[in-house]
Each structure stands twice: as C-alpha cells, then as structure tokens.
Amino acid sequence: MQISSLLSQKQDDHQHHNHQDDHCDGCGHDHEHTEIRLNQILIGLLFVINSFIIHYFFENGKVVGDVNAMIGAALLGYPIVWTAIKDLRKGRLSTNELVALAVLASFASGEYQESGLVAFFMLLGEIIETRTAEGARASIESLVKLTPTKARRINGSKEDEVEVKDLKVGDVIRIRPGDNIAADGVIMMGEGSINQANITGESLPVDKSTGDDVFAGTQNLNGVLEVKVSRADADTTLGRVHDLILAAEKTKLPIMRIVDQYMGFYTPLVLLVGALVWAFTQDLSRVITVFIIACPCAFILATPTAMVAALSSAARLGILIKNVADIELSAKINAFIFDKTGTLTTGKLAVSRLAPQDGIKPAELLHLAASAEKYSNHPTAKALAQLANEAGLDLTEPQDFKETAGKGITAKVGEETLIVGRANWLKDNGLTDDFMQNVDLSEAEGYSLLYVARNGSFIGWIGLQDQTRPEAQEALSELLGADIRRIAMVSGDREPVAARVAREIGCEEVVAECLPQNKVEYVHKMKAKGYRVAVVGDGVNDAPALAAGDLGVAMGAAGSEVAIHSATIALMNNDLRRLPFLIKLSRQTRSVINQNFMFGVVFVIGGFVLASMAYINPIIAAMLHVIGSLLVVFNSFRLVRQGEELEPFLADEKEVAPESQSEAPKPSAQPA
Length: 672
Description:
Elements: H1 11-15, H2 38-57, H3 62-89, H4 95-108, H5 112-145, E1 150-155, E2 158-163, E3 172-175, E4 184-189, E5 192-195, H6 197-200, E6 206-208, E7 213-214, E8 219-220, E9 225-231, H7 237-250, H8 254-281, H9 284-293, H10 297-316, E10 319-321, H11 325-330, E11 335-339, H12 340-344, E12 345-356, H13 362-372, H14 379-390, E13 399-404, E14 408-413, E15 416-421, H15 423-428, E16 447-454, E17 457-468, H16 472-481, E18 486-490, H17 495-505, E19 509-511, H18 516-528, E20 533-537, H19 543-548, E21 551-554, H20 561-566, E22 569-571, H21 578-612, H22 618-636, E23 662-663
C-alpha cells in the first residue's frame, strides 16, 4: 500500500498487466503494489452491502448474510493478501503485511463485514494514489502526444505522408495551418504564428519566417511553412525535455532517501506496538485497528506529491528542473551571479537613438539608412531593418550597393547617394564637416555609432546598443525582495560597458573584463564566504561558471542542446522573471513538504493512541487512511497553481520612431 514515487512507473505497471517483474524500480521502497481489478472490487463490495441488507431486513438471515459478507471479504481481501505473500516470498517486509494481517485477523474472527469494508477502503486508498500517479505521468506524457504521428514530406514536386519516426535530418516537410510541427527544423519558406507554449512557457504565439527555428510539438496557427528537419524523433527539443523531466522525477530529495533508509524498521516496530496492545488489552479489534492506522501512506506521499506538483508548475512556465534535489537547493540560494551578454542583455544590437540634423525628420533618417543597408548582413543593418519594419516604413531598393567590411556602405537610394558607416568611413569618402561635435554617446560604453551622409552632406547619426532586457530590473528587484543577499554581474566586456548595464538594471556589484577562468574564480570566492550561489548564463560560453556554482541556470535553452545539458536548471525562454518565481516555488515546496510530514507523523501517532484506547474501530481507521492520503495530495497540488499570476513575457509592441532627437523605442526581447 505504498507509493513513494508518482511518475516512475508506466500506467500499465500500476495495473500489473505484465507480471514478469512486479518489482517497482522507480519506487522509493522495495514492495509489491496491490493488483487491483475494478470489477472484482465492485462485485466484492456488492456482496458486503448485500450482507448488511440481509441482516437488517431478515431476522433469520444471519447465515445467508454471513456467507455474502464472507464472499465479499474474500474477493476484496485476496489482492491484499496475495500482494503481502509475494512480498514475503521475496524476503521483503513492508506495510502491505500489516494490512494483510488486519484483513486476515478480522476474517478469522468471523467479522466478515468488517474484514470486507477494511479491505475495500484500503483498496480505495490504493486506487486514489495510483490515479494520482497516472494523472501526474499523463500530464508529462501529453508532451509526446503533441508531436503528430504523420508528417508531409516534400519529395520533388510531390507531397508524401510518412511516419514521423521515418523522418531524417535534411528532409523538408510541409506544415499547414493548425498542424503540430513534427520535428525540429528551420523554416525554408513561408511565415506563420507559432504557439510554442509547451516548450518555452509563453502562451502568446510567436511570429516566425524564413530562417527561424521551429520545434517539434509546437503548433502552426496560420500560414503554410516548409521546414527543413534538423532534429527528428527522440532527438528533438521536446523529446529531450520529456526525457529529462522523467529522469528528474526518478531522482530523490535527501529527506526521501532518509525515509527509504528507515522504512525497513517501521513494520517490525508496528508489529511490536500491536503485540503490546494485545498484551495489555487482549482486544483483537484494537490490534487490527493499530495495523490499519499504521499504514503511513500520508507520510510516504508527503514528498513525491509536492515534488510532482512543483515540477509540473515549473514546466508550465518553461523551467526545466533536471534533479528534484535542486528544488530544495533553490530554497537555500542567497546569492546570484549573472553573465551580462545574452543574459541581462538581449545579445542583439538595437537602435537606441536617432539623431537627425536640423530639417531632417527621424523617420526620414531611419528610412534612408535602412534602405541603404538593406543588402548588408551586418548586425547594425538588421537592427535598422527591424526598427523600420516596426515603424511601418517601406524601404526603397538600393542601387550600386557596395560594402567595405568594418567600415560601412555606399549605395544609391532613389536619386540620392548615401554613405553609412563609421566616422572614418565618411571622412575617407570626402566629408570634412565636424559632424561628431554633437554626439553625446560614447563607443567606450558599448554604443555602436552609425553616421549618415546624403549627397556629400551629413544628415545625422544613429546610436545602437546591446540593450538590457526590459524585465531585468524588475527581476533583480524581486530577487532582493526575496531575501537574496548578494547579486553580482560578471562580464568579459569593457568596464564602461558593464558599468552602464549595471546602472540600468540596478546591480551594484559588477566585475568586468573577465575571462572564463576569472568567472569561475569569482564564483569560488563567493562560495568561500559562505554564500549559496546560483550562476545564470546562456549555457554555452558560461558552462564552466555554471558548473562552479551551487546552482547553474541556463537561459533560453529551447533548441540548444548545450544549454540544456550544461546547467542544473534550464529556462526554455529568456524571461528573467522566472528566477524569482523559481526561488518562491522552491521555498513553498519545502514548506508544503514540511506540512505533509508533520501531518503524516501526527496522523500515525494520533492513530496509535486512538486505536489502543478503542476510540476508533478498524472500519473508521481504514476510512481515515483514505482521508489522510487525500489531504496530503490536495495540499501538495496547491503548488500546481503557483505562477498563474506570472504573465508570459513577450514585448512585441514598439512605437513609431520619434519625430525629434530622442530615445528610439526599445526592441522587443526575442523569445527563445
């Protein structure tokens, strides 16, 4: 009657259709699970109820009623007794034997109705626990069901329907509106809105087009896509996430290992208590009640139910926890170390300032510069194109486009000749104006400056930077509010750049110009001062620092195998607000586990006292057993609803470029 791990068995294993190996490898204890057939339980219960009816309505029907009760008790008690026998044959002693002894003792004393009802309520408790396990596993198995079984593979001019398992890297598949995507890949043609909530935790769809990555199991809401497969079957991001969640469930918290260690002594202790009760009272009913109330299902369910609920809540928001011990560890974290680029910043250039000369509107400056740079693959050109698209500007096709690496471009836009690039590039092309005198941004602080000239005359400059994530300041503030004592940012970038980012996000401690080994040394120094340190990075170039921390958190892990495997916890998107939620969830999980354990201990001890004093009988004890298990399950599953108030971060809206020299609208954070 024990379930200490709720996900580690397949549903068929719980019902034991396959009897070749009845040992539950995933459970925390060595024992047999009771084989339950619902029709057998119902028939047995009908016989027991019928016996009560016969005894109540027919004065001379005692024998017939007893026979009915005996048959019902036999049907209901058989699975319990047979499970205990299999335990004993394998040399194992568990609480299954306590329940079997209670049922047999009632049966042998002629209390058939009592024996039948006790067996029924104990089997009911097992059904509730098993259904809890199956429901928890089903919520994770549903991830796999999101991946379709068929795919439309393009073969020349034909479209063939094939099994998803037959897809290979390099195949091109067609995704129609409403289809779930069959494999990870890159969009070769088309554009559409993709619902990728099951991967990143974002409930809002993400617009994707040619060149963007898509993930198996996500849904194409509109548009027809042709996708080149990069990962298929179990190698997809969804497949790896599914496997890692199931692997996490098989890990154990330290308290679970302690429970496992001492459970072997529990059953002999209960037998001793039963013997003492018999010695002092000579009342078999009290001994039976002690055996029933001693089944510590509420105690055993305390940790795994809370763990399942926490894993489910975290997975819903795109937080991949690979070892449940990290939930407990997260509750003890009191220091965070952040990488800068790609973690606290977007890692992509974005326009931060449009500074046109007098007589030139910001939108005109942006239109000319973005049109001239249209054929460039430089990050600055992409940033200009992105802002122009968000501002609703139609770019003009450039003519005579020429690009000099590291300097800039020249092109004709309409009838006008444009020069866009660094200051020296404009000077090399004959500009003699002192066009840098009004520039109030410094490249030393991480700004990239583009200067624009039209027909030989300077018309303005554009500032770009790797911008901080809009939610970074809020996330760091929430961490400080959650009693995180120390927050630091380490970066390989220059001191002025790191200092600027630190000011924008409100981080007081910053270390710049760090090599990877310097970051590791900094982590070790902080740990040496007694801090429990979480290191947050992009999971690729920060792998040594992530491994050095007590807890490593990789950002934006969707689609990145390195990121998923380099950290103990992976965020499938780039929303930093998941971090304070993780701390909050871990602390609430620890609190719920403590509540469950306290309830389980009080339940068993109180039950011993009530049973030994004959305040409860075996039937009441069996009912309390079911109620206790339900209370623990319901208390744990309060955690599932944690984070519902956390809206998915997807800042897509931008304002049109300002009409005067001012801060350009900040770019949206790109979802992972």
